Amino acid sequence: MGLGRVLIVDDEADIRKTVRLTLTKAGFDVIEAQDGEAAIKETRSGDNPLMLDAILCDIHMPKVNGKQATAFIREQFPSVPVIIMTGQPDIKDATELMKQGVVDYLIKPVTPEKLTEVVSKHVKAHVYKDKFRV
């Protein structure tokens, strides 16, 4: 197992690929979803859906958007950190999402170094909390 398991939720295949390659190279295990609907399905399936250490989520997507997916994820898996990564930043959206428990808000394009730094920070915090949970 790598440094942690990260779910990437973005409707742009090129973005998912770039993020996946960056995080995989850094040592993370990566799962992809092309929209919020697929992300919700991903959290409900697999060998153990709770085995996620962080979720990177776009906001503007078809079907189920990032706000809706984040609300579901935060409700079902409150300990899993959600990081927003958007190409259309909006201060109102950012404030609303942070109040809902989003741990970070990145604006595309994100450098590989910044992406790895932010994901590493939140994955470590999540793994540490889970490891020492009473």
Could you characterize the architecture of this molecule?
With 134 residues, this protein is of the alpha/beta class. It has a single domain (5-131), classed as Response regulator (Rossmann fold, 3-Layer(aba) Sandwich), CATH 3.40.50. 47% of the residues lie in helices and 17% in strands. The protein has 5 helices and 5 strands. Strands 2-1-3-4-5 form a 5-stranded parallel sheet, with helices on both faces. Helix 1 (13-26) packs across helix 5 and helix 2 (36-44) runs parallel beside helix 3. The radius of gyration is 13 Å and the shape is globular.
Indicate the topology.
Elements: E1 5-9, H1 13-26, E2 29-33, H2 36-44, E3 54-57, H3 66-76, E4 82-86, H4 91-99, E5 104-107, H5 112-131
Parallel strand pairs: 1-2, 1-3, 3-4, 4-5
Helix pairs in contact: 1-5, 2-3
Number of domains: 1
Low-confidence stretches: none
Strands side by side in the biggest sheet = 2-1-3-4-5
Share of residues in helices: 40-55%
Instruction: Sum up the overall morphology in one term.
Output: globular
Mean pLDDT: 89
Helix vs. strand class: alpha/beta
- Looking at the structure, the CATH topology is Rossmann fold
Specify the number of helices.
Answer: 5
Features:
134 residues, alpha/beta, Rossmann fold, 5-stranded parallel sheet, 47% helix, globular
Brief summary:
By secondary structure, this protein is an alpha/beta fold. It has a single domain (5-131), classed as Response regulator (Rossmann fold, 3-Layer(aba) Sandwich).
